[in-house]
Amino acid sequence: MRSGTVIVGTGQAGFQTAASLRTEGYQEKITLIGEEPHIPYQRPPLSKGFPLGQQDIESIELRPRNFYQDHQIDLIDGKRVAAIDRAQRHVTLASGESFPYEKLVLAVGARNRTLPIKGAELDGVLYLRSLDEAVVVKDRLENAKEIVVIGGGFIGLELAAVACSLGKSVTVLEALPRLMSRAVAPIISEFYGALHASKGVKVVCNASVSEIQGSGGRVQGVFLADGKKHPADLVFVGIGVVPNTELARNSGIPIANGIAVNEHLQTSDENIFAIGDCAEHPCVFAGARIRLESVQNAADQAQCVASTIAGRRNVYRALPWFWTDQFEIKLQMAGISNGHDCVVSRGNAESRKLSVFYFREGRLIAIDSINRPLDHMMGRKLIAAGVQLTPAQAADEGVDLKKLAGLISAAHS
Amino acid sequence: MPKVVYVSPAGDSREIDVPAGTTVMAAALKNGIDGIVAECGGVCMCSTCHVFVDEKFFDRLPPAQDTEEAVLEIAAVERRPTSRLSCQIKVTDDLDGLVVRLPEKQR
User: Average pLDDT, stretch A90-110?
Assistant: First the structure.
């Protein structure tokens, strides 16, 4: 029997690679190995419906356990891959077993960036990425009263919204001048800042956190550089992630801001692919090599690699899209807005219906939408097809995006 | 317990007992119905749980919200008048016998 494909990582990317390989008709052995002691599950609900008690563990499993047996996928959970032997083409687990591969897919994800300050090790300072961490977050939230969230990005703000909805006193400390500043335009930051404030969340921007203070090993508050103290019996840290590159690096595969891959999502070793949060890939929509952390990126890259392994060599060029849910307001994002030089909007914050269009050198590169779902969905089509839309047209409600998108579909059929 | 009938593109049908309150999408995943991908997990961001609802049942469903309507516009197989996202259909006792047909592809 041939050695088939080994997939390292049981997140969305690893799971989707295995599932798509079977959909693509791949008949060889598939081994899916992950460090977490769980069958593959969805990560987005961990900072949304799961801590709110709206979703339980079973409801966030990507598939039930028997799916893997039914599709001849050998799922090995709770095991860490320690090394890749590229010459012999096998991977070795920390526990000693080894698995040969013809094709190896690294879907090894990322880990939380930790806060390098005094007091970060105190009991009550929590991070959130895995299901195990989410169980702790949910449990500790029950009896907590005052929460400080360090980091006003997506995860931090989603957790702040959850904690506030559970009746807790919540303060968000953001180091930069505005919320989610790496991802969205000021008008969106302001909208969410006002939303959080209206619910009672205290948002502090330009906050330089200097120390977490505690007593008897337990957290009591967070000090800022200006000497101000924010009391807390629970602190969430959401300050980004670091890609897991060590396994690839130790086997001599080049690393950039993530495991470096080409347009086929192949590393420097043609039998080894890297996808999802851990991979830095060339992105036509960003006009640069980037690394993304999203469900769309994980699932579409998995699909691309599965198709290549199954014999239909594929180039990755899926349009990135994202979402965040904070209180009752979903933000839908299409495209990559980095490097924009012009921003126009439709709708307005007062009506809670707002889309922001981002342009770079006259080309539409991204749209962020609040309660304007058709703008988002049509935006995905328009940006993916590279349709020329002027800023004036984007700002004009009279220009029907659906009609424009319909013209592309007609031209392609 | 209400039953839901899933019909594959080839015409094979499977009848599943679905507890009231469960979505047509979640029941499909739990019971190994191929053809429902559910990439976004049921939050109306992708179109990979698209189904065609049998005409006899279509009007009995609560109408689609704007978010769902928008997502149906990007379905991999073009939407029809009876298209819905199965993540937005909650099974109730009244819907016992609901028939949904799966499209040729979801991605």
Answer: 98
